[in-house]
Amino acid sequence: RSPDIVTLAECDRFDDFWEWKFNNAGYGAVWRKRPRDASRDGCAIAWRRSTFDLVASGGFDFGASLGEAHDRTCAFALLRWRRDPSVRLLVATTHLARNPESTEQVLARGFQYGTIFRELLAFAGEHDAEEVPVVLTGDLNTKDCDELAGIARTLIRLTSAPTHPLLWSV
User: How crowded is the C-beta side of 129, counted as CA atoms within 13 Å?
Assistant: First the structure.
């Protein structure tokens, strides 16, 4: 298989393994390390260089709630289609709080999920990409994406925070 886009959560050994593998296979790639000092993993986004050009990359780190130490990360890549440079795609990948069986972690994941859409809007705004299609991937650690989106929508409404419109259609 040869996909045009590859995303990896819990991606370790990026510098000495994945980056080289992607490059040799014709891909460009960005990686964002998880902020925990003891962790060597992070999130990677790779794209086929013959299909896409990188316009911008970024991301952010976050905890399980406001004020909590940052333990997770989310990477963004804004890509331009080489066949028609007016066509762009925004790719995001993340790894949310673990243990989907734990009801205590459900709210943490809902907060993290909502934060992604707030930060996605900020990144898109910086690059005039608010109307660009979005692909969101990662390890969401949930059994029910509707529940996750519902919690995120509720938190966003309670805080009146601006958010990417994708949240309302997921």
Answer: 25
